[in-house]
Amino acid sequence: MKTIIVIGAGIGGLSAAALLAAKGHNVTVIERNERAGGKMNEFRQNGFRFDTGPSLMTMPFILADLFKSCGKDLVDYLNLIPLDLLCRYHYADGTVFNCYSDTEKTLQEIRRIAPEDADAYVGFLSYSKNIYERTAGSFLENPLYSFSDFSNLNFFDLLKIDALTTVSKRIDRVFHSDYMRMFFKRFTTYNGSSPYLAPATLNVIPHVELTLGGYYLSGGLYSLASALVRLGTDLGVKYHYNETVKNITGKNRTVHGIITGSGEEIACNVVFSNSDAAETYSHLLSGPMADKAMRRKVEKAEPSCSGFVLLLGTDRIFDSLGHHTIFYSGDYRREFDDLFVHKRPSEDPTIYVANTSHTETGHAPAGMSNLFVLVNAPYLTNQSDWESEKDDYASLIIRQLENRGLKGLGDSIRVKSIITPAEFYEKYRSNRGSIYGTSSNDRLSAFRRPSNKARNINGLYLTGGSTHPGGGIPLTVLSARHAVTLFQRDFE
Ligand SMILES: Cc1cc2nc3c(=O)[nH]c(=O)nc-3n(C[C@H](O)[C@H](O)[C@H](O)COP(=O)(O)OP(=O)(O)OC[C@H]3O[C@@H](n4cnc5c(N)ncnc54)[C@H](O)[C@@H]3O)c2cc1C
Known about the structure:
Elements: E1 3-7, H1 11-22, E2 26-30, E3 42-45, E4 48-51, H2 60-69, E5 80-82, E6 85-90, E7 96-100, H3 103-113, H4 118-140, H5 147-151, H6 155-158, H7 167-174, H8 178-185, H9 205-211, E8 215-217, H10 222-235, E9 238-240, E10 245-251, E11 254-260, E12 265-267, E13 270-273, H11 277-284, H12 292-300, E14 306-314, E15 324-327, H13 332-342, E16 351-355, E17 369-377, H14 386-403, H15 409-412, E18 413-419, H16 421-428, H17 445-448, E19 460-462, H18 473-491
Parallel strand pairs: 1-2, 1-13, 2-9, 6-15, 13-19
Antiparallel strand pairs: 3-4, 5-8, 6-7, 10-11, 11-12, 14-17, 14-18, 15-16, 16-17
Helix pairs in contact: 1-10, 1-18, 2-18, 4-9, 11-12
The structure holds flavin-adenine dinucleotide.
Flavin-adenine dinucleotide (FAD) binds next to α1, β14 and α18.
């Protein structure tokens, strides 16, 4: 049995810790913040409760599988609520489109706003499913580390996953209406990329939400972080909060332990780092343990976009909001050029609002709402100055929501908190504030993500959204699974 340190209590770290403890290892998680969850977190004030990170759960079978591998049953830890209305979309011209988990109900909506695209909708879902079936086993569920992993890739399948064109070009060829074009292009943002740059393979994401389903977790998405901590505790994992790991130590490229911010040296044979891969290779490994080639690689990779978050406790309920609501920008192309080409916040951003008090009244006082407002933001560059810009940007977003039908929003605010891209770095050490690891803005980026095991350092494994297979809750859980598989290949 090994003594294992897990650096960071994000979803990847918590999942890996539970899997390792279930196999009888002695596991300690060290987290720099006061509680677990990382980017999946929560905020409470004056009777309002907010998730501050994820708001939509997909592919719950990956999570169920994690609990099963730990000898437990997901339903004893979490209550998943399937969403009937997946999301309500408001377009700039005032058109409203409700997207349901029931395809027939969605088709009725499409026949109302874009009848010319109804047949294409059904065809596109089966195209998306086809990409999923060709990539799930060979890419997502494959650690892609050793020769034998790569030999499991079916190159015939890879030719059929639409990697040679972009998300946007494929969608423009299939759909006629701007409504459906914008609707399908937004899914690329689920891994922080641009539909105008990313390969059309990412058109797999609509299948994941529209066919496999979108879920809410009773109590809020943060219940998942709490459930994973409880799972780990039940299996014997120990958690240390408010403690930063400063260095991974070792000799002859073999891990011997870690040093904390308070100078404590803790010996261990194995480290699982859930700190961003860029942070791990650039800051946690130094001196004889430094891996210069990997450091260059992670620093060169383009991060995913970041996010600008407003948490608004309002003294009223807005009828135009569902549980999830999108207000599209007037110029979608320009918004992505701002984010990924000019790397500046958009002046006309697409605005996403999650309103969990719509589903759970306890998340806001009676007759009030807890609005989580998110717009995509560029990752941090030398020109970022969120400290001086954040209040003006928050006011711009609130004004735009008022213009889009949330009358009196500004005056209704009783609680207000802002999270900027700079804070995603300061708080969670996310590479340049990115919220989904690296972007998928070029054809090969999915294959260039750091592996779940360090190639040049014995005893170091990596988990989290910045590693293979990528960001978002389900993929992050898979990253933990891969890291543990690679560890088992080495030690069991
Ligand atoms: C605003 C927002 C909205 C999102 N929406 C969704 C969504 O709807 N659905 C979805 O599936 N995903 C969503 N995501 C993405 C999802 O949150 C992430 O992919 C996932 O939570 C990342 O988990 P992770 O394992 O990479 O860990 P992280 O969340 O990055 O956590 C890493 C942890 O390690 C700690 N740490 C780092 N360095 C050290 C160190 N040196 N010492 C000690 N501790 C350290 C950090 O403090 C942190 O707690 C969203 C993210 C954000 C921010």
